[in-house]
Model the fold of this input.
Amino acid sequence: DIVMTQSPDSVAVSLGERATINCKSNQSVLYSPNNKNYLAWYQQKPGQPPKLLIYWASTRESGVPDRFSGSGSGTDFTLTISRLQAEDVAVYYCQQYYNTLPTFGPGTKVDIK
Amino acid sequence: EVQLVQSGVEVKKPGESLRISCRASGYTFISHWIAWVRQMPGKGLEWMGIIYPGDSDTQYSPSFEGQVTFSADKSINTVYLQWSSLKASDTAMYYCARQGSSSGGDWFDPWGQGTLVTVSS
Done:
C-alpha cells in the first residue's frame, strides 16, 4: 500500500492569509509515461461528505475557487489556500490513485485564527 | 446533475444484518465504478472497495475482504453495501462515491451524503 502522510495535523490562519498543507507519499505517485502525478485533494466541511478540489495534483475541479491551488511532484505535494475565507474551515485530505488500492492522508484541519 | 443519494441512518445490534443503498442519477450508471468509503467517528477516510454496476465486478480492499459485500441493481441504478453480522466496530459513516474519470484518474466525485451506521447493544 502507498502510505500518505500530511502536515500539519491542524493549522489556524487569519482571514485573508495563506494556508499551506503538505502531503507526502512513501513512494512516488508520478507516472512517467504520461508525466502525471496521481494525486487528488478533497475538502470536508463539518457534517458534509468530502468534496473534490484538485486532481492530477494541480488541476482545479470545475467550480472550485482559484484561491485553492495544488503543487508538487513525485512524493511531495502542497495544497495552498491563498486568501483564507470563513467558508474554507474544513478538514483537507490528499489521496493517491497511483495504484489499485487508493489511500488517503489522515487529514489536516484548517481553522480561523 | 450527477448525484448519489444514500439511504438513511441505521441503528442496529451486534450480530444483526444490514444492507444500505446508494442510488445514482444524472449519468450512465452501468459505465462507472462506484466506491464505498468508511469514516469512523472522528477519523479519516478508508477505501473499502468498488463495484462496476455494468457487470457487478467487485474489488475489495484487503482490510474489508470477507467482512462486507457489494452488489448492484441495474434496473434501479442502485448499489448496495451489506453486512451479514454487524460488530460494534462497524459503527461509522459510510459514503458511496463515483470512482474514476474519462482521463483515467481514479479520484472520487461526486460523493453521496453518507449513511450513518451505529451498532450498539
